[in-house]
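Before a colleague's protein record goes any further, I have to sign it off. Thanks in advance; the entry in question is below:
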Amino acid sequence: MADYAQSRTKMVDNQLRTNDVTDNRILDAMERIPREMFVAASKRPVAYIDEDILVSDLGLDRYLMKPHVFGKLVQLALVKPTDVVLVVGGSTGYSAAVLASLAGAVVMVEEDSELAARASATLVELGIENAAVVEGKLTAGCASEGPYDVIVLDGAVEVLPEALVGQLKSGGRLVAIEGLGRAGVARLYQDSGETIGARFGFNANAHLLPGFEKAHQFVF
């Protein structure tokens, strides 16, 4: 079996640090967690390049985010060791694994049954005990386990459902990449207890999560 430790170190040094990921806890987690276990078998040799990587050889249009984009998105959320985190669309579980190193507990919701089963099995194999995978519709989140200190959307969205924002605790944070391609930006939403405020994080792009598309409109 290939030894990917050197690839992880290069990823952290050449992709994360050079793109302003400065939180040592994130750097340590991403240097330790074997990203190659969460991608399609055919993609393992390139699991650490700075590109979105297919998670399955089964024809599913689902990806891990570019390492530096994911690292910056997690850093934007300011995850604390006591936080309860919801990951929306975690596919094979890489984001849940990283966040489990930073937070008190992680709930990951995934609507594809095969991806959910794979994520759960991989988290168990890695001995990660504070992360659980729930199968369900991504746009619905997982209200039964909430509310949450942090919600991370593991992919791009065109529309942010109110149902997800409503699962934040007072003071909770939600991070998402909104828009596609060059129009994409990462934003931080925070619940002040009375209103939800939003601020720009950084320019970014990622593949669209299923169910978060804009509704088609007829043009006459």
